[in-house]
Amino acid sequence: MLLTAGGVIAVVVVFIIALSLASFTDSSASKGNTVTAGQAALGLSPSGQIVSAANMRPGDARSGDVEVTNSGERADLSLTVNAPGSAFTSALKLKVTPRGEPANVLYNGAFAAPAPIQLGTLGKGGSKSFTLSISLPQGTVSSLGGSELNAGFVWEARTQ
């Protein structure tokens, strides 16, 4: 009898353990989630020539202002000078400052900088104005007289 009672208890324990491991699950889906990539969108004013640098002589410097507007997402702004390599290009210097802040020099060096010139961050709907100055230093060799250069300023915004 004791053996039968022990067997019954063992069977009851097995059923209790099996039933206590039962689990119930439920799930719910969150629909309508949209993921989009941010976009950079720059505008320039003026959109054409920024600096009029015709007939420069050694010691001359010419400046022009440009306003860069960002209608896209917050972005890092940079400037690259797209110019062919030549002795004339190598002789020219470029200086970039925020407009009206000549002491706050963002770049002062070779006209065709070896890397993009970092100009800070532009928020969505934000704008910044810059003064670009091109100079032909004193002592530039006279053999560069009559040289001509067609260059472009390439403004780039990279979303953050």
CATH class of the domain at 60-138 and 152-159: Mainly Beta
Basic shape: elongated
Order of helices and strands: HEEEHEEEEE
Count of helical stretches = 2
What's the N-to-C terminus distance?
80 Å
For the sheet with most strands, the description reads: 5 strands, antiparallel
Structural class: alpha+beta
Counted beta strands: 8
Low-confidence stretches at least 5 residues in length (pLDDT < 50)?
none
Here the CATH topology of the domain at 60-138 and 152-159 equals Immunoglobulin-like
Q: Give Rg in angstroms.
A: 34 Å
How much helicity do the residues have?
10-25%
Name given to the CATH architecture of the domain at 60-138 and 152-159: Sandwich
Task: Determine the mean pLDDT.
Answer: 84
Description of the structure:
The chain is of the alpha+beta class. It has a domain at 60-138 and 152-159: Immunoglobulin-like (Sandwich), CATH 2.60.40. The chain is 15% helix and 34% strand. The chain is built from 2 helices and 8 strands; from the N terminus they run αβββαβββββ. The chain has helices at residues 2-20, 87-91; strands at residues 42-45, 61-70, 75-82, 93-98, 107-110, 117-122, 127-135, 152-159. Strands 1-2-7-4-5 form a 5-stranded antiparallel β-sheet. Strands 6-3-8 form a 3-stranded antiparallel β-sheet, with no helix packed on it. The longest helix is centred in the first third of the chain and has 19 residues, at 2-20. The termini are far apart.
